[in-house]
Design goal:
Two copies of one chain form a homodimer. Chain A is of the alpha/beta class and 527 residues long. Chain A has 14 helices and 23 strands. Chain A has a seven-stranded mixed β-sheet, with helices on both faces. In chain A, α14 links the parallel β19 and β20. In chain A, α2 packs antiparallel against α5. The mean pLDDT of chain A is 97. Chains A and B meet through β7, β8, α7, α14 and β20 of A and β7, β8, α7, α14 and β20 of B.
């Protein structure tokens, strides 16, 4: 049952006077539950509990953390249809998507459970003593990764499960040994509370300390800022807009003790279509991209918002074909009236730019909160000179830039802001003729895709989801996959520390049987 | 020969009107060479050359980068006595120290050469395609670490070689594939220019692109700020004061495109002496710590500036013994009149605090620029209430805090600012009786030492040199050892990329024979 209250540690709490509701965009009505905005006292209590919980949670064994993570996954599944129905009523997304995202979320939790149960992720590094070394003896030094402390997680509007309450940021933080305080996303506060209840149940069942998790309601920005400013908070995870992510980054950087913020923000995900591919696959590419641009009503952070080609008959044919294909697709619902409102505004602003041609615009009337997919085109110099055209229009919108030649293509790519992904569409050996274009693309993105679409972010160790600013605030980390745990940990060294006082990861006898770098050799042996 | 000019890429340049000289603190006179402060045009040119150099340097093979790094080491050694004499004349440090630090610097360069020649450091991670997976096929995805781009390095006053021009930050950045622009430290600009000439020679001999390195002179702060603000610069390394490091961090955070700053800053390196140890080893501990506090005139970032014990006869005896020992040590020269000036000011300020007792102060007259070693003591509550007493007094100064009991000891530790190191002095099984003290210490530091001294930072894979703010701006990285390369790299993924276009690190045939994580298994096999 959804109560509308905050979870301050294990306890439900609603001490504030401000409240808000979520919205069903398909029915165009508010949902029933009233959510109570957290007060400063509730925020303070969540932060104090998190700090206290950290003292025991930080030394929790990998096995115990794995039990906790697996229990969260189990409890999420146990929410069953209530979760799916709440998700749909707060997003307008279809059931299939809700179930798919639940699967991804549960999969991520179990992936981190496996990681910490095995244990080698701590990068144990040992250099044994050399008492006879000249001119100075060498100490015994042993290093491993340890958790930073309490982490605040801001969920994403477009992924109520996989990038929110028990999403990738939270799962990685728990795996690292960091308590988590989630600032619940106001558009799906009910879904958030249900998942929070699953986390609390799992924490209680597996004996985790009170305060290992809190769920804070708020529809404004002030509560989030208070959380980021709290001295007990040691890191921040965020998925959302550039404006929101940058504001939190600035707040965190200006603290007396600055803390790291990993914000995954906007991206227009450039797609380069080389001439041979354009010629040989005009219609199939058009179909593929019409589908990728409108997937999930264009509400993916890897949505292809920018297509680049070299001008000529082939590009003209492709644009024509893309326009035909995209208007064939039935419009779909956006997440919230605010989201469709922003889409319409940004789209209108883009369309009002000089020398921009609208080549596809869904003509018929659409239902309230449904988005009209749109494709525009410009020439290279117009695009280069107008920064407005580089900005993301979050939704089913894409712009095709017609470049004079390969040199112009390279210049445009090199002047793009940082992006999550870049895609290259090429035939046979064509790509090897464009080394400068590929090199420029690699400098601006976190992941390159060959002959595919950027939408779809596989959860696997080799995935990088992040990239140069503003696609993320720190390109040195990924938000997806096992290595995303590195955002929440720091190296820590023990020098000449007694074996019995060392953590198990670093003890001579290697009781966890993990892989360690010992005197520059990677092995699972004892010392 | 020292020219006093900047290196803008491979060329010597002195277009500015402002100039300055270095100072010999032993002789108390200015050194001869006049150094030309870089102009905005020279800064801009260095940044443009670095950006251009990055396009080829980023794809430079590990073998070629190793040749470059080894050649730098060779050229530094070839500078021979000119380097040692210049070093001594600009720091007042003895020849033995100069030679030791040169050895450390050369050793670090060769360590990174070995790392990149072997090649596995890129953390190659491969998940092969699963075309038949249901409900969706899985793409082939391959990830590795790639360089961020040009890095600006600010050298340290107290390590003209190992943490400056070709020191750890620069060596790690080159190893990563990042061009480096050094903002030369004005106190040892001659040493800096000599080392810069060695880097330039090595770059030319091993065919590195012009712009892979520049050396920028300046005695003020404006040039450094210009460098950090330049859009071509993608990361910053700094070793020095909290004030200086924080100013650069703020500048970098406020850029339109924020960039990471790794600043290793101040630390008072708390040392906890437990009661049994205090009782059994009073005199030997006093000798050891008198020596550690005054080592290098207290000018190490790991200098023990804070000793903590539980009050009583044993602590009183220790303080007495430490006082006797420390005044026996002959005072020594500090690096520069500004450094001794700051030491005298900070010391005076500390000594003027209420309820502080001076227990050792070198009484005889000392030579100009020589420091008077000082030990003070306070009770726990005085220390807790007065933040001035928590501040570093850079030089041979230490304060002994007499705690009421173990609880007070824990409280004091938990309220310390972040530190590079924390040391525990304990006898036999004594340490296991203080789990809360040890836990609190671990939260505040980057490295713990058992029954040793914090001075002396071994260069090895297991070393962490860094820690919670303000000992560094980002505790997630170390400034020393092979893993310090991670400050300058980011993960990058290739999805379905053609094998022939992949970098060697990720090709099926594994031509570099590096260790890779393939479908969750670490191995050197081909695919």
């Amino acid at each position: 049952m959804i109560t509308g209250k905050n979870y301050i540690g294990n306890d439900l709490s609603a001490k504030g006077n401000k409240s808000y509701r979520t919205f069903n965009p398909q029915l165009n009505i508010e949902n029933e539950t009233t959510f109570s905005e957290a007060t400063s006292a509730e925020i303070g209590m969540a932060c104090d509990l998190a700090e206290k919980a950290f003292h025991s949670f930080k030394t929790c064994s990998g096995k115990d953390k794995a039990s906790f993570l697996n229990a969260i996954a189990d409890e999420i599944l146990a929410l069953d249809d209530e979760l799916i129905q709440t998700y749909c009523s707060e997003t307008g997304l279809p059931e299939g998507r809700a179930k798919g995202e639940r699967g991804r979320t549960v999969g991520q939790l179990r992936m981190f459970a496996n990681l910490v149960e095995e244990g080698s992720w701590v990068e144990a590094t040992i250099d044994t003593a050399q008492p006879d070394r000249e001119p100075m003896p060498r100490s015994d030094i042993r290093k491993m990764l340890v958790p930073l402390g309490p982490v605040v997680v801001f969920g994403a509007s477009n992924f109520p499960l996989a990038y929110s309450t028990a999403g990738g940021d939270t799962a990685a933080a728990f795996a690292a040994g960091c308590p988590v305080i989630v600032k619940s996303h106001p558009m799906h506060a009910g879904t958030g509370e249900l998942v929070a209840s699953a986390i609390i149940k799992a924490a209680e069942k597996t004996g985790m300390p009170n305060g290992v998790f809190s769920n804070i309601n708020s529809s404004g920005i002030d509560v989030g800022v208070q959380l980021v400013k709290h001295p007990n908070v040691k890191a921040v995870g965020f998925t959302g807009s550039i404006k929101g992510g940058r504001a939190l980054y600035d707040t965190a950087s200006q603290r007396k003790e600055p803390i790291p913020v990993f914000a995954e923000m906007g991206s227009i995900n450039p797609v380069i279509i080389l001439p041979e591919a354009l010629k040989n696959r005009t219609d199939s590419l058009a179909k593929t991209y019409a589908s990728s641009i409108t997937l999930g009503t264009g509400q993916f952070c890897t949505n292809p918002g920018l297509l680049l080609g070299i001008k000529g008959e082939n590009l003209t044919n492709f644009i024509h074909s893309l326009s035909n294909e995209i208007v064939k697709i039935e419009p779909s619902c956006m997440l919230h009236p605010n989201i469709i409102g922003a889409y319409e505004n940004n789209r209108k602003n883009a369309l009002s730019q000089p020398e921009l041609n609208v080549v596809a615009d869904y003509q018929s009337n659409v239902q309230t909160n449904y988005a009209r997919q749109t494709v525009t085109t410009v020439k290279d110099s117009t695009f280069l000179e107008n920064p407005t055209l580089h900005q993301e229009v979050f939704g089913p919108y894409s712009i095709v830039v017609q470049c004079e030649n390969a040199e112009q293509l390279e210049i445009i790519i090199s002047r793009l802001e940082g992006q999550l992904t870049g895609t290259l569409i090429a035939d046979n050996d064509e790509a090897s003729n464009y080394p400068e274009v590929i090199s420029a693309l690699q400098n601006r993105v976190g992941r390159v895709i060959f002959n595919g679409v950027p939408t779809g972010v596989e959860v696997c160790p080799s995935m990088n989801h992040g990239g140069p600013y503003p696609s993320s605030t720190d390109s040195r980390f990924t938000a997806v996959g096992i290595h995303s745990i590195k955002r929440w940990v720091r190296p820590f060294s023990y020098q000449d520390w007694p074996n019995e006082l060392l953590p198990n990861e670093l003890k001579n006898e290697n009781p966890l049987e993990i892989s360690r770098l010992i005197n520059n050799e990677q092995k699972t042996a004892k010392i």
